[in-house]
Amino acid sequence: MKQKILSLISLSFTIFIMVVSNAAATSLTVIREGNAGGYEYTISQDQNKITWKIIHKGNTIVIDETEGNREQLDYFMRAVREIKVQTIKLVSYAIGLLFVTIATVIFHKKKYLVKGGGAIFALLVILALSQIVIASTDLSSLYKDAGFYYYRLTN
Asked: Looking at the whole model, is its pTM more than 0.70?
């Protein structure tokens, strides 16, 4: 009787291990995720198949990666990542401009500006403004790129 119970437990345990390992082998593995500017993507792999889930404005699209769309998916992913980078740059330059402006006002009111100090602050303001314009232009271009590849992938 004990031997039958041990055999039954052993058999149950073996079946359990086989089911769990098979379920783990067939489950999706998330490779990469990203989101910026209203675009979101999740790349998953299921054995040999790579699947992309792309979300924009509440629309969710699932695309299987193939040789024909791999390059466009890669460009879309790069555009979304770069949107995040350019947004951080734009905010950083804007904060820098704000800091320089506040420092200029404080130094001017307290009469701490030495001769030529105003020119230095003016150069810093011009530098910050030029970087803001560059980052804004790049960001606009990246939004257009992401939109273009989103449209190409969904149609």
From this structure: yes
CB burial readout 120-140, b (16+ within 10 A) else e = ebeebeeebeebbeebeebbe
Per-residue DSSP letter, 90:
H
Q: For residues 87 and 79, is the Cβ–Cβ distance under 8 A?
A: no
> Do the bridges between strand 29-36 and strand 59-64 make them parallel or antiparallel, or are there none, so unpaired?
unpaired
For residues 55 and 38, is the Cβ–Cβ distance under 8 A?
no
Q: What is the mean pLDDT of the chain?
A: 83
**Paired sense of beta strands 49-56 and 39-46, if any:** antiparallel
Contact 51, 42 (CB under 8 A): no
